[in-house]
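Form P-L/3: holo structure prediction, ligand manganese (II) ion.
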Amino acid sequence: MSSFSFQPYQGIATFGHQPHTRDATGADVAILGVPYDGSVSYRSGTRFGPRGIREQSLLLWGYNNALQVAPFEKLKVIDYGDVDVVPVDIMATHAAIETEASQILKQNCRLVTLGGEHSISLPLLRAHAKKHGPLAVIHFDAHPDTWDEEYKSHRYSHGTPFRRAIEEGLIDTNAYLQIGIRGPTAGPQDYLDAKQLGARLITIDEALNSGAQTVVNEIRQRVGTRAAYITLDIDSVDPAFAPGTGTPEVGGFTSHQMLQLVRGLRGLNIVGGDIVEVSPPFDAAQITSILAANLAFEFLSLMALGKQS
Ligand code: MN
Ligand code: MN
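OUTPUT (holo model):
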């Protein structure tokens, strides 16, 4: 039986058919779009990410069989719409993201944010750390994103957010894991930098050789009861499963492995999360947006399991 009184393809495409409102009062989780791709190093197009993911979220029937929870029933979820981005100004865009996110979090409403490229995680981490203190961060990515400067004399871009976040004290580096890292880099220093900054860097080889359960065990052990933020760059998934992204790297997770890793976080104190780098113009048959929509559904499921009563 469908829980919808209409067909899944009917109506305006809010996330999972949840109501659109900019009033987060009484809501448990807000879906927030950030259609910004101003700082990417290669192919652009993630400005269409939130719209693409919302459209492919329409077939989420509602019950998560793996986690045995119905997030849209357990939680009051709203689709808050998008942040007002400024395509020519990353600083103004980041300020707008932080302001909007902080206002939502102040209502005791959690956030699942749909990007947009990965620079947007920095203002999101600022907003969350303001509320919770330094965060455990579970970072799925092909890239460490810990460069100092991606473009000469410019400290903010999608290759630098986690170095900035650590410098700003937003991340508890005892519980910062990067998972799925791979691909050719500028040099050996890229991974060493991430490790020196305190990241537990789990390459794709280590993750696939040891298996999802071992990776999950280590995440759980390091994160413990800390307030944890998940940031999921869709390029952690193999481009065969997620071609719609800006800096694809071959040899990544399958869709199912990604689902297993996220589901393995059940019971952790997940205070927020984002899914970034989905670029619909490079997608094929919407498979990347479909995956991103399902991963957002898994995030909501984790939050629903954590809700008392
Ligand atoms: Mn990446
Ligand atoms: Mn990234």
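COMMENT: The chain has ten helices and eight strands.
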